[in-house]
């Protein structure tokens, strides 16, 4: 069976939508090892197609991958076995770290989702962001103009949250939030405050 199996990471970070190539090297098997790549995400495993080259006791396998944001955190396993003794495989695994632009969703506070908003009550917005790396800035907008923290005016901005205290008719409008990381800035859906 193979004495060692190693995944050689790519030289550049894995970026969503950008093709990359990973290499797995198994050494010490005679005859040369057979290599199988497998991706496991949320308990479901998928066998991936790869290209292999056998030279004596060393087998190299190259996996071409176009990562998706959903692959972030998936486990990539390289399994090498001697074709004559397949039950004794050597394996190595790595967790995929995929860099991707923010995915942004704007939601109205839980207590306001099923009823109309009336003057004088507080309104709570939440900007849900999924990204890698995490966002370094979240910006709020009303009708395309930036909303800033204004304690006297009853506008409280705190990262992923926007609170409008004692709303008035002038608070009505189209609200969005935008998240920025090193890859991009993404704007959320529009939430109409009526």
TrEMBL record:
The keyword Disulfide bond applies. The keyword Disulfide bond applies. GO terms for cellular component: membrane. Gene3D superfamilies: Immunoglobulins. Pfam families: C2-set_2, Ig_3. Residues 2-99, 102-188 form the Ig-like domain. It is found in: Membrane. Keywords: Disulfide bond, Membrane. It is a single-pass membrane protein. It comes from the Eukaryota. PANTHER family: OBSCURIN, SIDESTEP PROTEIN. This is Ig-like domain-containing protein. It comes from Cherax quadricarinatus.
């Amino acid at each position: 069976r193979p004495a060692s199996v190693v995944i050689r990471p790519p030289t550049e970070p894995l970026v969503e939508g950008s093709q990359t190539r990973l290499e797995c090297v198994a050494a010490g098997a005679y005859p040369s090892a057979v290599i199988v790549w497998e991706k496991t995400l949320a308990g479901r495993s998928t066998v991936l197609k790869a290209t292999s080259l056998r030279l004596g006791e060393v087998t190299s396998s190259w996996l071409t991958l176009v990562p998706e944001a959903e692959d972030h955190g998936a486990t990539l396993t390289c399994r090498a076995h001697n074709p004559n003794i397949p039950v004794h495989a050597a394996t190595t695994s790595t967790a995929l770290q995929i860099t991707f632009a923010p995915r942004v969703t704007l939601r109205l506070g839980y207590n306001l989702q099923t009823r109309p908003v009336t003057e004088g009550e507080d309104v709570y917005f939440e900007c849900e962001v999924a990204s890698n790396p995490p966002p370094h800035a979240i910006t709020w907008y009303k009708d395309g103009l930036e909303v800033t923290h204004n304690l006297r005016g009853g506008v409280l901005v705190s990262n992923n949250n926007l609170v409008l205290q004692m709303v008035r008719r002038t608070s009505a409008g189209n609200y969005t939030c935008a998240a920025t990381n090193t890859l991009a800035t993404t704007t959320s859906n529009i939430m109409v405050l009526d």
